[in-house]
Amino acid sequence: MGKFTGILIVSDVDGTFLSKNIESLKKNLVAVEKFKEQGGKFAFATGRDLNALLEVIPEAANIANAPVILANGAQLYDFADEKNIYECPINNRKLLAEIINIVYELYPQGGVRFSCEHNMIIPDFTDILKKDMQAVSLPKMRILETTLDELINSDIKIYKCVIVNTPENLENIRKISADIDKDGELYFSKSYLHGLEAVDKNGTKGQAIRWLKNYINAEKSFAIGDYENDIEMLKAADCSAAPKNALEQVRQAAKIITAGCDEGAVADLIDILNHDCTAANGYANACDES
Question: Whole-prediction pTM value?
């Protein structure tokens, strides 16, 4: 039994745990190891799928000692068993296809990619998608090109759809999608400036952290993230944090503001729990009361 026994920390990857500053990343790694040594459970939560996560964090299986949240919450993957222990692929595929067809019609210069069970599937591998995948570190992904109709009518599980376009066009697409999806069967959010991502309404990071907390029998959950797709997770956790570089709307959803991503945000959160309270459980209770 250690100080952090029963405590789960779930961290977003890009803009939160990862940094171009090597010293910042080292701080996070050292802090996470000490947190685990004292009984804590640590997991990643990302919009990436498993292959994409391992591309930017090759040692993710050694860093995380709890199942990781993938595809914005549509998958929970356990490195120990090498399989998904929870998944929520998009249920209403026809609704998704209806929205995507309108996107193709209105914005043919853009692009759409799908995170599926074995591959990334791209109906039309446009130049904008190629540039986008380079920008978000996905150049080595296994890609299958097929038509949208073939994908929708197949048995292939679709965990997440990413619409790539300009920020202005994406906001318009978001409004169009809301008008079509009146029952809210899909959950749309952004994890970076040029991508609007759709998952099933039950496949969000928020749903996933609740499920994960129960699965590992954690007493308290802490979540930290910087972008729009992290907000549901911050709301669902017992206590929430955001690095100071996070979007304003994300900082507003957080109880704790940590050092920035380039200064060791995750290490700072762990340090706050370690020094600014007598026990992490007590800090979570304080968050609940505030």
Answer: 0.93
